[in-house]
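Consider this today:
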Amino acid sequence: MYKRILLKLSGEALIGDKGFGIDHKRLQAYAQEIKAAHDLGVEIAIVIGGGNIFRGIQGEEGGIDRVQGDYMGMLATVINSMAVQSALEKLGVYTRLLTAIKMEQIAEPFISRRALRHLEKGRVVIFGAGTGNPYFTTDTAASLRAIEVKADVILKGTRVDGIYSADPEKDPRATKFDKVSFTEVYNKGLNVMDMTAFTLCKENNLPIVVFDMNKPGNLTRVVKKEAVGTLVEV
């Protein structure tokens, strides 16, 4: 079983059956999944995207300056982080929200030693506002934070049950990989996460598991190192 994990969730995952924003049923389901894994004694850190509310690239298409748009996207991740925090605390899970952009009224500023201490005390730590820098995705934030808090693995929860040779939603001939190396991902051009984030993981020997977060019990199974999703490692 993994001792310390970083769970990466997409903002779009929170949309659920809604067309925009946060589906509270999906939010509660995710909170239950995270609590079940936490109850096993696993130390959990979380990074969540903001695509259900705003993406910097969307702002750029609409005429908003890219840097400004990226900061708007960071604020969207904080909204999602606060929602996840609230849902977990309603289940009795102690949490801490740390942000890369200072906003003391709602969160602690990110300090790696402080984050480590919270994890050691059994609190679920949620990292908001990405890396705090424009031009970097929340995938990169997840890789960076995972390395900083010495996580054993990044668990990328998606709506697909692993990594495929092609998009399984578009190509019925796509085949799933149970295990793949970082080099194979490069050579085959597989879509796991953005290249900056992926390279960070490769250079720091940080494995990645891509799995279906929407299937009940999957997070707990992945934490127990059962054969769920696709494992990427050296």
Remarks:
- The CA atoms of residues 81 and 128 lie 6 Å apart.
